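Hey, resending since the last one bounced:
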Amino acid sequence: MKTLFIYSFNKIIQIIPTLFIVTVIIFSLAHVSGGDPIITMLGSDATPEMVEAVRKQFALDQPLYVQYLLWLKKLLLGDLGTSIRTRQYVGQMIFDRMQVTITLAIACTIVSVTLGILSGCLSAVRKNSAVDYGVMILAIMGMSFPSYFIALVLIVIFAVTLKMFPIAGFTINVLDSPLPAMRNLLMPTASLSADYLALIARLTRSSMLEVLREDYIRTARAKGIKEWKVTIIHALRNALIPILTIASINFVYLLGGTIILEEIFALPGVGRLLIEAVNNRDFPVIQGITLMIGIFFIIINFLTDMIYSLIDPRIRPE
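The structure tokens again:
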């Protein structure tokens, strides 16, 4: 327990400089993207006096390092700033859109990880059988078709032809009405999960095949342990580390990578908000969303490292 605590403390200490570097990169990239957000907000008819007044209001007339320090000070106080275009608090704007994006990301992660591990294990246990070939063919197909193509096919079949699901839109509160909300998310989840499911299935198969060749697996079988226990308890546990790595990275990617599907299904998520902010040169919103994704990535990596150390104590330093 003491070793785990020291390992966790060292990881937390490493997060602090990482966060600082992330804030510097995010602030810099937002300001070298080009365009003037003030002119975009006020329009071409705005007078120089109006532009200068708004520029002073948002401290955009200050040097970049001063703007960064002011932004960092607000961040430390939990303030992501105010949208240049809508004058709304950035934190509230992200929070209002985050529910849809997180729900979609969690649903896709659960589906892809669960089905991917099950199909990958089945394929490894039945190596070179019809089941193995079938799973791998489906996995290759899943990785070959882009998510937007699968989304359009599902819309044509289940929404336009069969009229089983709504074509677009997501207006139901997940917390208040979970079942209707999940029904609206079935097609987006299926579209986005196909690629990740196929990737995890292939990774699980290769990891399981490598583990199943180990001496301790042959020893466990020689002791008369049931095959399902050998597969799940002994083999799968040791094959989980690369799978967890991919699953954690994919989850963070889903938070910012659902832009195309949010456009296709008209989902009011963070991805669409980011596109709107980029088009309008809304620096505070761009910085807030990018920072949020960066923080999620750091947190997920930290939790993944903790899970690693619990699954395989050899990872923790002595």
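The domain at 92-280 is CATH 1.10.3720.10 (MetI-like fold).

Sorry for the duplicate.
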